[in-house]
Amino acid sequence: MIQFLLNQELRSEHALDPNLTVLNYLREHVGKSGTKEGCASGDCGACTVVVGELHCNDQGVEQIRYRSLNSCLTFVSSLHGKQLISVEDLKHQGQLHSVQQAMVECHGSQCGFCTPGFVMSLFALQKNSDAPDSQKAHEALAGNLCRCTGYRPILAAAEQACCNKPQDQFDSREARTIAQLKAIAPTQTGELNSGDKRCLVPLTVADLADLYDAYPQARLLAGGTDLALEVTQFHRTLPVMIYVGNIEEMKRIESFDDRLEIGAATALSDCYTALHHEYPDFGDLLHRFASLQIRNQGTLGGNIGNASPIGDSPPLLIALGAQIVLCKGQTRRTLALEDYFIDYRVTARQDSEFIEKIIVPKGHSLFRAYKVSKRLDDDISAVCAAFNLKLDNGVISDARVAFGGMAATPKRARHCETVLIGATWNAATVEKACAALAEDFTPLSDFRASKEYRLLSAQNLLRKYFIELQTPHIETRVTAYV
Question: Phi-psi bin for 354: left (phi > 0), alpha (psi -120 to 50), beta?
Answer without folding.
Answer: beta
